[in-house]
Amino acid sequence: MRRLTFAECIARLRQRLAGPLPGIAAHLQMAPAYRQSPDQLRVEGKPCREAGVLALLFPEQDDPYLLLVARPAHLKDHGGQIGFPGGRREQGETLQETALREAYEELGLPPERIDVLGALTPLYIPVSNYCVHPFVGCIASLPELRPCPEEVEAVLRIPLTALLDPTNRRRERWMIRGQAVMVPFFAIQHYRIWGATAMMLAELLALLREETLMD
Length: 215
Hints:
With 215 residues, the protein is α+β, with helices and mostly antiparallel strands. 25% of the residues lie in helices and 33% in strands.
């Protein structure tokens, strides 16, 4: 596809997020072998904990970049993995407010500067019993970040061109909970982005590619 400027990327996402979403059809592209059933991914009917996360886009020399975080290994839920800023919903707040609050608490991102473009399809994560609601936002320029060391080990600034490059989509057989499992992932820099984060990224990227996948 033609390389998009930051402004073009934001305009396309704003338009596509207002319409039907690729949803689980996109999630399945990056789902590990043990999560290939659509019913395993849907949040409907699951007595789960709710979480909100933020996929934040920002410009670097007019190219669109995405902000991700590496979690410390000691965390109970998803320790050592790559994810979006976000966390558990607190009483009395909307899920969008959760995503913005967590981005502020984890990275010091001011909520009033973030333009929320819309929401991606929620995703159920069995291992932590979370129903994750991803929101897509943008910011005109990335401020100096203040990562919370208890929740963020490293901040990743990922060019969207790297995520859109098909050569960065890989598959390997990993040992997970004592079983050999085929796992798709994004190989970016020296990180492997897999699991729920990769599945949500697959939907975001499908919107940029103008794919027509639907549930």
